[in-house]
Design a protein that fits this description.
With 302 residues, the protein is an alpha/beta fold. It folds into 2 domains: 232 residues, Rossmann fold (3-Layer(aba) Sandwich); 48 residues, no CATH class. Helix content is 37%, strand content 20%. It is built from 11 helices and 10 strands. A hairpin with a 2-residue loop joins strand 9 and strand 10. The longest helix has 16 residues. It is globular. The C terminus is likely disordered.
Length: 302
Amino acid sequence: MTPLLEARHLRYAYPDGRQALRDCSLSIAAGSRNVLLGANGAGKTTLLQHFNGLLRPTSGELRLDGQPFDYSRAGLAALRRRVGLVFQNPEAQLLAPTVAADVSFGPLNLGLPPAEVRQRTAFALAAVGLTALAERPVQHLSHGQKKRACIAGVLAMSPDLILLDEPMAGLDAAMQAELIAVLDRLAAEGVSLLVSTHDVDFAYRWADTLYLLEDGCCTAAFAADAWPEQLAVLRAAGQPQPAVLSLYQQLSERGLAAAPRLPRSFDELLAALPRKAAAPCEECSECLEKSGLSAPVPATPT
């Protein structure tokens, strides 16, 4: 099947000569959840800006639905209708005075009829939970609300793929949960998503496919379930193991947990714990406490 978006052997050098991408290749399937991992300076933001046509590779090729990118003015406009980018800093993306005005900016620039612009704006605001704040000045939004407003602005363009650069940065736990709920709704509606993040716990729990970027090159691409098989590569790139996976492995080694497949969330880990078990050793109790879980209750003798 033809990938929705494909990068082939991308190279990119900034004007000062610094190499940001080095023979970077990867592909994104339609309707998939994808996460881009990598240390600061690995090239994640540069790669996302190539996918949206903001940057053009020094060499290599980008394809959408199997067709090479068209870098003409009309070609880039068509590309950005299908591939939207949400910047890490929402201040760089919110330009209009109110939330609704900002979300409607893209559809208006497409020359759509006013009724369709209103419909797209209402849909996008509802999708990110900002309908009640439609007329609020953007400068009065919280940081998390600003990020959701940026997603709504991209969503109003009805894209096939949304790129999000470090969307969790600067968000507290509640804001992160709200944002993940938005991403889940978009994925359920068939929108393809590519998220750049340092949060390996979110990446392991949420993604279908993970990509590891190291020194401007995609050194690994694998299904999230295959994390243990990529452990050496990930560790070499400075990526820690997800907390739930580390805890499950320690529990299973002590016979305290068993599951048909590796758990990817703490809910799945809890389901793998036996209903009745011997009291865990002191070390396991400490692990459970650090993870916010309670230790299994010992069986009551009858």
